[in-house]
Design goal:
Elements (H helix, E strand, L loop, with lengths): L5 E8 L7 E5 L3 E2 L6 E2 L3 E2 L12 E7 L2 E7 L11 E8 L10 E4 L21 E5 L21 E2 L7 E5 L3 E6 L17 E4 L7 E6 L5 E4 L1 H20 L16 E2 L2 E2 L1 H19 L4
Parallel strand pairs: 1-15, 9-10
Antiparallel strand pairs: 1-6, 2-5, 2-13, 3-12, 4-11, 7-8, 10-12, 13-14, 15-16, 17-18
Helix pairs in contact: 1-2
């Protein structure tokens, strides 16, 4: 498998309202399973709306894949949270190497026992082989918690083998959810789709505007917004410090999209603070 790739999705909240954003992934393709449920993968606390780019939520995604197992005392469905109990990192199959294969059992609690079997996973996927240590519809029911959040939930049946194929496509929406909770996408409001299999960059930025729409920001413009946000945060940190507009300070050739480069801006802020300190001490 190729080295894990890192993706970043940044949401700038300019909607006019506070929102708690969350991330979920495209449903993986799973053989021998009539039902696959999407889970809340990452859930963030609410952030306020600001027009200066300083109110933002960044989701960082690493494509190291994991198989996660657990149990639920309720049938899988909307708003159900799975009690996870074990996980294993997996490799997707490639032309020169089969994907990871795991055995699944409920003996001693839902888990993937070791030693791991010989890899037999298909290209682009991995395999889970369920034993017959439980009876449908409910596995052991033990409530143990792991520390990896599953992106999707698949109800398994005794003695069945499942091939799973993840998809590098993600969605962002907002609302009150917890990580690991099963999601009913039909109940969501406006939702942003980010398909990195078709994207030119691994880092994308979107503005959530006052029309409740997600507007993509060009990479060059996103850099300017980042500098603007940094300037606002530094100014707030220094107190009521007035930052002269770009182009009114020396070094006008050091501007990017009408904003001064970060190092130049930091120096001018430092000089402003030093003047304030000298003035307070009676020094001109």
């Amino acid at each position: 498998m190729a080295n894990p790739t890192t993706y970043e999705i940044t949401i700038l909240n300019e909607s006019g309202s506070s929102h708690a954003y969350f991330l979920f992934a495209e449903t993986p393709q799973v053989s021998n399973s009539p039902s696959v449920f999407q889970n809340i993968w990452m859930a963030a606390p609410p952030i306020v709306s600001r027009s200066d780019g300083s109110s933002q939520m960044k989701f960082t995604i690493n494509t190291q894949y994991y198989a996660v197992c657990g149990t639920s005392v309720q049938p899988l469905g909307s708003n159900v949270a799975i009690a996870t109990s074990d996980y294993e990192s997996v490799q997707l199959g490639a032309e020169d190497q089969p994907g990871t294969t795991l055995n699944f059992t409920t003996i001693g609690g839902a888990n993937f026992p070791e030693p791991l079997p010989t890899p037999t996973g298909p290209d682009g996927g991995f395999t889970i082989q369920a034993d017959r240590s439980w009876s449908e519809p409910d596995p052991s029911g033990q409530d143990m918690h792991g520390n990896v959040v599953p992106v999707a939930s698949v109800p398994v049946s005794p003695g069945i083998t499942y091939n799973m194929f993840p998809v590098v496509k993600f969605y962002v929406s907002y609302g009150s959810f917890v990580e690991g909770q099963i999601l009913d996408v039909e109940e969501l409001g406006p939702t942003l789709e980010v398909n990195f299999t078709q994207a030119e960059y691994n880092t994308v930025t979107y503005i959530h505007n006052n029309l409740d729409e997600y507007q993509q920001v060009a990479p060059s413009e996103a850099r300017g917004i980042k500098l603007k946000s940094l300037a606002a945060k530094k100014a707030a940190f220094l107190g009521e410090v007035e930052v002269p507009a770009a182009g009114k300070m020396r070094g006008q050739n050091h501007t990017v999209n009408g904003l001064m480069k970060e190092d130049r801006l930091a120096k001018d802020l430092q000089r402003t603070l030093a003047k304030m300190v000298r003035s307070a001490n009676g020094v001109a």
